[in-house]
Amino acid sequence: MVGGGAIGLGIAWRLAQRGRDVLVLDRAEPGSGASFHAAGMLAPITEATFGEDALLRLNLASAAAYPDFLRDLAAATGRSLQSGAPGTLFVALDRDQLEALERLYEFQRGLGLGVEWLRGSRCRELEPALHPAVRAGIGTREQEVDPRARAQVQVRDDERRHGVSRRSASAATSCRTFRPRSWAPRR
Length: 187
Ligand SMILES: Cc1cc2nc3c(=O)[nH]c(=O)nc-3n(C[C@H](O)[C@H](O)[C@H](O)COP(=O)(O)OP(=O)(O)OC[C@H]3O[C@@H](n4cnc5c(N)ncnc54)[C@H](O)[C@@H]3O)c2cc1C
Description:
Elements: H1 6-17, E1 22-25, H2 34-37, E2 41-42, H3 53-77, E3 88-92, H4 95-110, E4 116-119, H5 120-126, E5 136-140, E6 143-144, H6 147-161, E7 164-167
Parallel strand pairs: 1-7
Antiparallel strand pairs: 2-6, 3-5, 4-5
Helix pairs in contact: 1-6
The structure holds flavin-adenine dinucleotide.
């Protein structure tokens, strides 16, 4: 496996659970890439936008599967990373942003997504740190997870199981794609 971020560590962890021996190479330290800096929002609704219907379906399915993934991780490691759902606000600060936000809200509502239109005063009530100029917002309930804690838990569990070895400061310089016969697309 090349790269020990959220994606590589997650795949390595699942493969080790299925009895495979996995080697994760990382040119730096596992968990130190984009996954270290992410806010941890699991936000398919907030990020739903025009012309991305297929991506939205994938994102919704992925977010729906996430609680089971965290449950499996907690069962294996004894460490709960239970994801909260504190809610997300997507706000508009001026007239142009307000128009764009209204269009986005109608689009998201038309898709049946769980969004709520909130006046500026309601947004500030929910999040007092918001700028007084906030005109309105779209509110949703979405999950979050601490990406740094998630990486740590997976790395520790890998060490305990011995199914996954990791090598830091090991950059891959070329890759060969491997596709088992059963994955070949049907003609
Ligand atoms: C500021 C910020 C905020 C974000 N907030 C969110 C959010 O709230 N919600 C969300 O869903 N997403 C968020 N993201 C996006 C999210 O962080 C990424 O989509 C996710 O972390 C990607 O995981 P990854 O494993 O593919 O990449 P990474 O975590 O970057 O891992 C890739 C790893 O591969 C290693 N690597 C690269 N090249 C090589 C090589 N040639 N050989 C060996 N190793 C190599 C790197 O060192 C790194 O450790 C955010 C991103 C940023 C930057």
